[in-house]
Design a protein that fits this description.
single chain, 173 residues, alpha+beta, 3-stranded antiparallel beta sheet, binds zinc ion
């Protein structure tokens, strides 16, 4: 069982330029809000792999990897959905080389692991959380779950009364 951590002191690793270290840590993930629905991460604590390399010039190159299960309603049929999300994120913290190379998650040599993990998970989510990739959604007429109803589910639409009137006229001639 990896040690739980919210942050990681990069300076304390005392890496020399070009040296790298792989660290296994447990991270707690906050629930997410998407399209007005709340999605929990279950379990909220996941094992993460952090790769830290010391760059020349005193900076750090970082990679964060973990898997998390997101739990909430399917965006098509509202049934429970629990997709497993693969997260693989990278950051660079290179002091003195401009904002682009200054990770917002590294402040004074301290990595905000929990904040980075939360944002990286949000970015790794698919555009739609689905109960299954081929979810058939809900019937637009009656709201039935089409995954359960099957492809034969349809409604006999009552004919438009105006057409019925036309048909009568034709009959009279
Ligand atoms: Zn669905
Ligand atoms: Zn229907």
């Amino acid at each position: 069982m990896a040690l739980r951590a919210d942050s990681l002191d990069l300076v304390a690793l005392r890496l020399t330029a070009g040296e790298a270290r792989r660290i296994e840590l447990a991270v707690v993930l906050d629930s997410l809000e998407l399209g007005g629905e709340r999605y929990a991460v279950t379990p909220p604590q996941v094992d993460a792999t952090v790769d830290v390399s010391k760059t020349t010039g005193g900076g750090h190159a970082l990679r964060l990897r973990f898997q998390a299960r997101v739990d909430g309603p399917c965006m098509r049929c509202l049934a429970p959905a629990q997709p497993l999300i693969d997260v693989d994120a990278r950051e660079v913290s290179q002091p003195g080389l401009g904002d682009e190379l200054q990770s917002p998650y590294v402040v004074d040599g301290e990595l905000d692991l929990r904040g980075w993990a939360r944002d990286a998970l949000a970015l790794a989510l698919p555009t739609q959380i689905l109960c299954r990739p081929e979810c058939a959604g809900m019937c637009a007429v009656c709201g039935a779950n089409l995954n359960e109803e099957g492809p034969d589910h349809r409604h006999e639409l009552s004919p438009d009364p105006r057409w019925a009137k036309l048909a009568e006229l034709k009959f009279d001639q």
